[in-house]
């Protein structure tokens, strides 16, 4: 299954009521400039960012957490990172909830605690954050921090997949193909693999190639299978090259030429694929 993601959001603003858009944009620019200066080691900017964080500014709290986690402009300090993420997470900033969840899951700056990780993912997932929904789905799939529940895994994968998250689309395709948490349905697997594949997600492209080669969930179509295998082979994945070369022996010269044309002209659609 795909890896979880660490989310980096800069200067999330929550303007209230009829706050002027221009004022909000200026505030955001000011905050971003402050963050970038602080992350490059500017002590004055760092002090200003810290003052904002101590005054309860959720974006400054998040940014300090990120800086301490990665050693950007400050000595790397996981405990400090967790402290600042927690302050932002307690103000319901989903990005901070996700990163704090990751720290609990990995035992980074806090004692390793999968149940705590799941709780923080859930808070962000319930706000509609697709990364958190995916993370929570994966925890239900593996039984890490929560009771293993394939149906719940599918529920959260689906929420994230419907928002366009390629990792979730791929995992949802896997659940339909294997019949874990949903009735086994190769046609549904094809649909979800395709959504991820069209974003450039290599694992989904490879699985889609297999399904087209075998006529599983879709009519058998070697030209399309060749195209998907070729795209993945171009990323240096050897099994895709092996499968492409194997089906080439079953194709006519015209079919091969068409498949090669499709491969050359293919372009990703939608948001870029995330971590594979």
Tell me what you see in this structure.
This protein has 276 residues and is mainly α. The chain has a domain at 26-127: Serine Threonine Protein Phosphatase 5, Tetratricopeptide repeat, CATH 1.25.40.10. It has 14 helices and no strands. The longest helix has 19 residues, at 21-39. The chain is elongated and about 70 Å long. Mean pLDDT is 90; it is low at 7-24.
Tally of DSSP β-strands: 0
Q: At CATH's second level, what is the architecture of one domain? A: Alpha Horseshoe
Count of helical regions: 14
Structural class: mainly alpha
Order of secondary-structure elements: HHHHHHHHHHHHHH
Keywords:
276 residues, mainly alpha, Serine Threonine Protein Phosphatase 5, Tetratricopeptide repeat, 66% helix
Summarize the structure.
The protein is mainly alpha-helical and 276 residues long.
Topology:
Elements: H1 21-39, H2 43-54, H3 58-70, H4 78-89, H5 94-106, H6 114-125, H7 130-142, H8 150-162, H9 166-178, H10 186-197, H11 202-214, H12 222-233, H13 238-248, H14 253-265
Helix pairs in contact: 1-2, 2-3, 3-4, 4-5, 5-6, 6-7, 7-8, 8-9, 9-10, 10-11, 11-12, 12-13, 12-14
